[in-house]
Amino acid sequence: MLEQQKGLKKKTLLRILLFLAAAAIITYFIPDRDRGSFNYSIGKPWNYSLLTAPFDMPVMLDSATMKARKDSIDRVFVPYFKVDKTAEKTMLSQLSATGNAEAERIKVHLQRLFERGIVDNDVYAAIKGNRLPMVCLLNDKVGQNISTAQMVSVRKAYEYIDSALSYSSALQGVKLSEIIVPNMVKDTLTTNKLLEDEYRNAISPSGIIQQGERIVDRGEIVTPQTAMLLQTYESMMKTRNKDAKDVHYPIVGYALVVVALLFLLYVFISMFRPRILQSNRKILFVLAMITVFTVFSFMLMERFHGGMYMLPIALVPIVIVTFFDSRTAFFVSIIQIMLCSLVTEYHLEFILLHLIASIVAIDTLQELSKRSQLVRTAACVFIAYSVTYVAFSILSNGNINSVGLRIFVYFAINTIMLSFAYVIIFVFERLFGFVSKVTLVELSDVNNPLLRELSEKCPGTFQHSLQLSNLVSEAAHEIGANTQLARAGALYHDIGKMENPAFFTENQHDVNPHELISPEQSAKIVIRHVTDGIKRAEKAKLPDVIKNFILEHHGKNLAKYFYTTACNANGGEPVDPAPYTYPGPNPQSKETAILMMADATEAASRSLKEYNDETISNLVNKIIDGQIAQGLMKDSPLSFRDVETVKKVFISRLRTMYHTRVSYPELIKKENKDGETPQNGK
User: Fold this and answer.
1) Angle of the 154-164 helix axis to the 121-128 helix axis, nearest 10
2) Strands 80-83, 134-139: parallel, antiparallel or unpaired by DSSP?
3) Can you tell me whether residue 142 is helix, strand or coil?
4) Cis peptide leading into 501, omega within 30 of 0?
5) For the segment 300-336, what is each residue's pLDDT rounded down to a tens digit?
6) Are 268 and 324 in contact (CB under 8 A)?
7) Which residues contact 606 (CB under 8 A, 6 or more apart)?
8) How far apart are alpha carbons 23 and 251 in whole angstroms?
9) Four-residue CA torsion sign, 448, 451, 457, 459
10) 501, 508 Cβ separation under 8 angstroms
11) Which of 81, 211, 415, 639 has a Cα at 20 to 30 A from 291?
């Protein structure tokens, strides 16, 4: 008992850590942790109350105006250059050091080039591209604007001298490429300083908002100028709070909200869906779905202007309802929407839009088994988004003119992304070992290779499985169990019989091999079809939920025929039941429990000598009541009401299967007076 309590505490601690880890990841990826207290967007109404200036504030220009003024300055600004006298002296001294007798002729040409100005390649490219028509030449701290038309590059200076002194002895022994360097260089320090000064003067505050003056009021459209005032307000408030050591930590608030929302999810699952909480895989799946999608939402809304409209939140309930149920999907979608709304600019609009879309997705997609269902759901979600957006816009602004057509494009992108549900479902099936209704439909196809092999090797068993699939699916439907799962499980529950088909009555033809061996050997062969079935299922990579049908359809029941035969051979004395007992376990779900009842009932019904309401009812009640009395159903979640419903379905279906056929009368032929039978009606 103590060990069980320790194990339970460890599991509880692990689940709590999973929830906390999810909360930490979500909080970490929340964007703009240091943003101000307000969420707003240019061109949208101000959703808060009247905001006044708590102190004198400068009226800054908006970003568009600031950029325009800077661009205007860049177009007319003249950069500053200076003459590098040191470079000129160095070139001339190097030329003299060559010992060339005619160096003076080269110096003359160089002096002319110095007067024109030699610049580097980048500056020369700007000149030729008409991007630098003029520069300001500094001489003794005095600037003079000069044209750049006469300036040359190092390459052009070399070509000029080479052309002027072609084939001259003056160039012998002189490496002009090493001597010629730019003598007119940009004064970067002065240029940048003066440019920054002009920027500062151009974008300086255009005025002052005095303390108590209105900044923006509720319902007003946020203009670029208003947005600039709000940024100034938030920046100055942060500075003042920091100076006053009143530091605000928004990350703490975000973390508390995220933890609170995930805690509510934990409470819901523990109270209403304890089976999910008992499975680490299921908990991990739900948390992974929420965490991954929330982080994706943060990134999408941060990168795209219309991210809140493009966000396919309806994808979450679609995936959840595929593996669980609609109630769980609805609650998870609420938590998901609340988490994503933390970074939205318009909380009410965001919550209203996506909540209605999620409800529509859940209502229109009870189970995902066909592609057409997803298309229909996507269309309904698009309509829900569109109608809700138009309604909210009219309520907020009082007219329909505020409806933007671009938003409908975002909704279309949203619904297109819902098609990725198939991919996500497939990925989660492989990662967590779940089975969707789509997979169950595929497994129920009788053209499946494993079922085709069963029909070829064990035709009798195959027909038995088909009849059971119809029987259990109808019973499952009546009690609210998983109909598709019950059908698929019934088709595969006896695949182990393919190893020894002749040892099972439905596949025998006048020869019974059990007559040649002992009851214990017979029981061993018959019981082995469970383990053989598991081996075949693993080879075919069938899901675990299908394997459960193979393991549990006999539970820990006895192979009664052979056990009774062995007891009779022992003089009526009981023998050891162990060799005659199936390995089990007993049914753990409604679907496997229905299969156990149906399997025994359908097999026993073939031995009835007379088929009528009384015999069929007595048989069904006897078999099912006997299974309950043996304790085979104690681990299943079936209620007494469910059992009675299953009995009624079995009786009705068996009555239909074995109904009395009407015998067709033979045609009595009339003879004529001559004792001959008329032919061709004559």
Assistant:
1) 90
2) parallel
3) strand
4) no
5) 988 887 788 999 999 999 999 988 889 999 999 999 9
6) no
7) none
8) 12
9) negative
10) no
11) 415
Buried b (16+ CB within 10 A) or exposed e, 216-233: beeeeebeebbbbbbebb
The pLDDT > 70 percentage for the chain reads 88
User: Are the CB atoms for 82 and 117 separated by under 8 Å?
Assistant: no
pLDDT for position 555: 93
- The pTM of this model reads 0.65
Measured on CA atoms in the order 94, 96, 101, 107, is the torsion positive or negative? positive
Question: CB neighbours (10 Å) of residue 441?
Answer: 16
The rounded distance, in Å, linking the Cα atoms of 330 and 317 is: 6
Q: Which tokens go with 11?
A: 């599991």
Nearest in space to 476 (alpha carbons), one of 634, 653, 272 = 653
Beta-bridge partner residues of 51: 216
Residue 391 CA, distance from chain mean position: 29
Q: How far is CA 660 from CA 612, 648, 650, 655, 656, in A?
A: 9, 20, 17, 9, 9
Tens-place pLDDT, residues 449-474: 999 999 999 999 999 999 999 999 99
Which among 402, 344, 412 has a CA at the least distance from the CA of 381? 412
Dist. CA 392–CA 387, nearest whole Å: 9
Beta strand 184-186 pairing with 80-83: antiparallel
Mean pLDDT for the chain overall: 85
